[in-house]
Amino acid sequence: MAALNQADIGRASGNNGMRLSRYLLLIPLIVMLLAGVYLSFRAGADYVLQYRVNTTLDRWQQSGKPVDLPQWQQLLADAETGVLASPNDADLENGLGRLYDFRATSMAESADQRKRFYASAADHYKQVIRLRPAWPYGWMNLTMLIAKAGIFD
How many Å apart are CA 42 and CA 30, to the nearest integer? Predict the structure, then answer.
């Protein structure tokens, strides 16, 4: 009887070892799944923010009506928050550049203020070019800004 019990114990411990190894294999898969879900949500949130910045700017430019400073500041704060969360996102940097460009072109109160906003826009466009050098929009926006601002070497 004692020999039978020893055999049963050996089989039971072997099954537990197999179960444990299965669970250990699942842990990295679950971690990778959670990381994929997080990155997907982060990319989706960045895209929604980029879309909101671009459509709001387009609407402001097409309306020709004056824009309230608090509206511009809120959109700027949202865009800056997005860039802090995703510092290597060229689309968000481009949106920041467009915001500063719009402020310099449409909302600046003095020539000095206009220069400061143009300089901020140029910095963001240069960051876009560093992040995505083959993307034509960063180059195009920087070139148009230089022409508007009259910044020639």
Answer: 18
Cα dist. 68→8, 74, 114, 134, 135 in Å? 80, 10, 17, 35, 32
In this structure, are residues 118 and 147 in contact, taking their beta carbons and an 8 Å threshold? Answer: no
Burial of 94 (0-12, 13-18, 19+ CB in 10 A): buried
Residue 150 to residue 102: CA distance in whole angstroms: 16
pLDDT in tens, 75-96: 999 999 989 988 899 999 999 9
Distance CA 42, CA 88 (A): 13
- Tell me phi and psi for residue 38, to 5 degrees: -60, -50
- Spatial contact of 148 and 128, defined as CB atoms under 8 Å apart: no
- To the question of pTM greater than 0.85 for the whole model, the response is no
Rounded Cα–Cα distance for residues 6 and 114 (Å): 87
Residue 107: DSSP 8-state:
I
| C-alpha triplet 70, 71, 73: angle, nearest 5° | 60
| Contact yes or no for 67/80 (Cβ under 8 A) | no
- CA–CA dist 90, 132 (Å, integer): 6
pLDDT of res. 13: 54
